[in-house]
Amino acid sequence: MQIAPPTVPVFDVGGVLIDWDPRYLYRDLIPDDAARERFLAEVCTPAWNRQMDLGKPFADAVAELAVRHPDQADLIAAYDAQWMRMVPQALDDTVAVLEDLAAAGRRICAITNFSAEKFAQCQARFGFLRRFQTVTVSGAVGLAKPDPAIFRRFLADAGLRADDCLFIDDMPANVAAAQALGMRAVRFVDAAGLRDALAAHGLLPARG
After folding, report:
1. How confident is the model at residue 206 (pLDDT cuts 50, 70, 90)?
2. For the whole model, what pTM was predicted?
3. CA-derived radius of gyration, the chain
4. Superfamily of domain 8-19+88-200
């Protein structure tokens, strides 16, 4: 039996549509490379950031971490107060792909690991983040990729089947989790490769 092609592209956000990295902020605040990397590995760590991705308010997370590292309190506070400096730009080539999908009349959705409060700020800054008909934000639902539960939550919220979707993410573990649930999925490397993948699945015309 021939499998129907997917009809709905489902985007990740950070690393696909916007450029996010704490180093953009901390390069200015901690000029020494080794000290900066030590701070991001031992104080404002990826595991600590994941708490906000899972719904913890930034103010609470910052206050708790500052108690544990009082000598770093100002640098920790900057993670919240100056967070937008971690996002210097949109990834314009990928945004152009998103806009082409919208122009073609495609339903466009997203599943993103993101603090709900910071995602709202990014939607205000980047209008294209308001194009999603359904967006599941980890911080709003208390679930984060690659947990299969966030994909199931998205499908329920969107009223879609797994095989309706083509999931796009830059992290291999997230791609694998989507595939394990029956979604078609591609790892994002660059906009040109994404265009080719979308064309291969019939979601955009092939490039001439």
Report:
1. confident
2. 0.94
3. 18
4. HAD superfamily/HAD-like (3.40.50.1000)
